[in-house]
Design brief:
Layout: E1 2-5, E2 10-13, E3 21-26, H1 37-55, E4 59-66, H2 71-80, H3 86-107, E5 115-119, H4 124-133, E6 137-140, E7 143-146, E8 168-169, E9 181-187, E10 199-200, E11 203-204, E12 207-209, H5 211-223, E13 227-233, H6 237-252, E14 257-263, E15 266-268, E16 271-272, H7 283-288, H8 293-301, E17 309-311, H9 313-331, E18 339-340, H10 347-360, H11 365-378, E19 383-384, H12 387-401, H13 413-427, H14 431-443, E20 446-451, E21 454-459
Bound molecules: zinc ion.
């Protein structure tokens, strides 16, 4: 498999460190609100990566964190539950939004059943241990900081301007113009802040971890160091991933991960999503407009993960139509009237050459999908593939792309009877009755296409 490694800025042949097992760490959500569709794009990319690695024969050990303590979760939980104990308030808020996130992920076909999902608050000891092991740290009045001037390798993902390196930054998120020493640990300042006991070099520093140390500690706790692949959205490259690498390498001299993959931004109508532009969408907004969450998944897969994806309601509408086309094609396997046309279609060969090959080439989902649509277009009205070919191809689509099309049920017996009765009415030229029966079927969500081979139903 070829992957574009952000560390080397090259397309490389991927080789795991040990045999065919892959240690994969993906940065998870900060659970203080609904995640937006830009974040969801990244999770869909990571799910597709995990699926493809697995289909290509790798054993994937996937770890993802839940950030359930940081500036935002603390501020929001205090605002929402001001009279609760700070740790209880934090737990109430973050567990709620963790559930919301998991439900969104499930609706989008993101499969966490073989993944290890770990919460930051349950790994504070590992974070403290890592901080102890970092030689180039120093204490300031408000916490413990990483001194980037004493770490020569700083600047993997950012161009260093030395004039910026002699001040400190407390915020977890900052931009490229603010390269500075960053917080490893933040001392408790206000009563409403949850805190953990931490004694460092004889000083009592009760407080909480910085954001970046969370991922470094949890990733290496479960996957060792270095591990194989680390991923995230491109917005996490700097400062988050830069700082993760710096802390981990500084603590024990080894790289954090051999490969970094970054998914590009999702734009809305050509703009970055922001609350001020009122273009900040969640999966709920998509569902409220009547779209299938899977249409959003398909929209994401139609773009390469390293290209910006422009979301608009028109593009989602087009993706919904494309999804309907795939589902109607999948439903052909149930059609008794359609004639089997398998000429020149060898499912196993098609899967290998037209579907797996593009996915093994830096996860080229748009090419895999366009190959699928070419195959769909070869099947004329009134035709279908053999059961065998459908079984192989639909299963592969689901395993690789998670579109959930292989298990679609047949229509029920009553609906089949209505189709038969409509055919009889048409044979007797009783157009009124035929029309009546068509309406009855449509009320049950079943449409009819009359083809040379006979009526073919589809779900409305
Ligand atoms: Zn992270």
């Amino acid at each position: 498999m070829k992957l574009y490694n952000s560390l080397t800025k090259k397309l490389e042949e991927f080789k795991p460190q040990t045999g065919n097992s892959v240690g994969l760490y993906t940065c998870g959500p900060t659970v203080y609100d609904h995640v937006h569709i830009g974040n969801l794009r990244t999770y869909i990319f990571e799910d597709t990566l995990r699926r493809s690695l697995k289909q290509l024969g790798y054993k994937v050990k996937h770890v993802m964190n839940i950030t359930d303590v940081d500036d935002k979760t603390i501020a929001r939980s205090h605002q929402k539950y001001p009279s609760d104990d700070p740790k209880e308030a934090l737990k109430k808020l973050t567990r709620h939004y963790e559930d919301v996130f998991i439900k969104d992920a499930e609706a989008l076909g993101i499969d966490f059943s073989e993944s290890k999902i770990v919460r930051a608050t349950e790994h504070v000891n590992q974070m403290q241990e890592l901080i102890r092991n970092i030689p180039n740290k120093y204490m300031a009045a408000d916490g413990v900081y990483f001194d980037i001037t004493k770490y020569p390798d700083y600047g993997v993902f950012v161009n260093l301007d030395q004039s910026h390196t002699h001040h400190r930054i407390e915020n977890d998120e900052y931009d490229k113009d603010h390269v500075a020493d960053f917080a490893l640990w933040k001392k408790k300042k206000e009563d409403h802040e949850p805190s953990w006991v931490f004694e460092l070099d004889g000083q009592q520093l009760d407080g909480r971890p910085g954001w970046h140390i969370e991922c470094s500690a949890m990733a290496t706790h479960y996957l060792g160091q270095p591990f194989d692949i680390h991923t995230g959205g491109v917005d996490l490259k700097f400062p988050h991933h830069e700082n993760e690498i710096a802390q981990s390498k500084s603590a024990n001299g080894k790289d954090l991960s051999n490969v970094f993959l970054h998914a590009e931004h999702l734009l809305v109508d050509g703009h970055k999503m922001s609350k001020s532009l009122n273009n900040f969408y969640t999966l709920d907004d998509i569902a409220k407009k009547g779209y299938d969450p899977m249409a959003f998944r398909l929209l994401v897969l139609q773009s390469h993960y390293r290209s910006q994806l422009n979301f608009s309601w028109e593009s989602l509408e087009a993706a919904q139509n494309a999804l309907n086309t795939i589902m109607q094609w999948a439903d052909l396997k149930h059609q008794p009237n359609a004639t089997v046309m398998d000429e020149g279609i060898d499912a196993n060969r098609w899967i290998k050459e037209n579907f797996l090959a593009p996915l093994a080439d830096d996860l080229n989902t748009p090419t895999a999908l366009s190959e699928l649509f070419k195959l769909i277009a070869r099947v004329q009205p009134g035709e279908k593939l053999s059961d065998q070919n459908y079984a192989s191809i639909l299963t592969e689509i689901d395993k690789q792309l998670g579109l959930d099309v292989s298990d679609r049920p047949d229509i029920d017996e009553e609906q089949k009877q209505l189709i038969k009765q409509r055919e009889q009415a048409r044979d007797q030229k009783d157009w009124g009755k035929a029309d009546e029966l068509r309406k009855q079927l449509e009320e049950q969500g079943v449409g009819i296409n009359d083809t040379p081979a006979g009526p073919i139903w589809f779900r409305l």
